[in-house]
Amino acid sequence: MTDRIPKSDKDLWRSLALDGSPSSAAVSDIDFAAWLEGRLPHAEAARVDAAVARDPELRACAIELAEILGKPLPPAPPRLVVRAQALVGFAAERSGDRTSRTWFTSLLSPFGVWQRGVMAGLAVVVAAVGFAMGGGLGESFAVRQYASVEDSTALLQPFGTNAPTQLNDLFTDNI
Amino acid sequence: MTELGQIDLRSLAAGHKRTWDEFVQAASPLIHAVVRRAIASYRQSEDDVLDASQDVFVRLCANDFRLLKTYDPARAGLSTWLAVVARSAAIDFVRRRRQATTAIDDIPEAALAVEDRHIEKLKIPDGLLTERQTVILKFLYDEERDVSEIAQLLKIDAQTVRSTHHKALLRLREHFREDDP
Q1: Nearest residue of chain A to residue B64 (CA atoms)
Q2: Residue A104: per-residue pLDDT
């Protein structure tokens, strides 16, 4: 059954005009959405009612959205989905990476102070050991050089450092 | 496929690519339908519908998701809010296009209509009708919607619409009868 109002009522209404300007009240998107869902408290709903009554654009919006919302909709063209998805891309990912790094850094930060101390201590130990090893190597190098000089002298003196005495012993008939 | 109600809004507003992709998948049918319906009377091409729909997504993510961050889930559902935003963006889109290029023949007649100012209308004084009564009479007579449509639109019973209408007309008749000489 369709409820059509008697023509006389309609004629009466159309002979009347609302007082006040149509743009007297601005309605935000979120308020209008809440009004469409019937979630506004009475006072706020009355304010939106007044705006809707005065603004044919808001009435058209309400009618159109009531026809669409809560009903099954056909899928959007894939071209739209691809283009819209491309709006947020690598830049956002990079900022996401920055966020991860920040998260990682913040995770370490409570330990940062003593960690830096430990690292400095380790660096000192490594430097000291390195210095000591460097000295040790120098010493062994000197020993090795000395040994090589000693070896070459031995080659030049096949009879040892006491060779003249030994030769004299050979040619002197003390036997 | 993820539904709109399942979208992680914090992650979305933080610009996470995966969440944005899920959001686009979930919101595209609604946004496309709203835009198509909103600009239907302007005889726009399918490419224009796509461009206007794309414009909605651009608005949502522009300036570090500023518009998206204004959404308050405690006040209204995401679908309803998106539909309101999409319709408003679509109308803006068409107006920008029309300002740039449209021939007068392409503008709907309703948009060009000028009210006949020779007809003197009686003013309804402020406070005579409640805002709810006024909006119901507007939908009934100016928009020519029937009671069940209005009830669905305002999320109230059809009987409430009828009684509100009845009381409003009684007030009007009473007021203007008193005013008759």
Answers
A1: A92
A2: 46
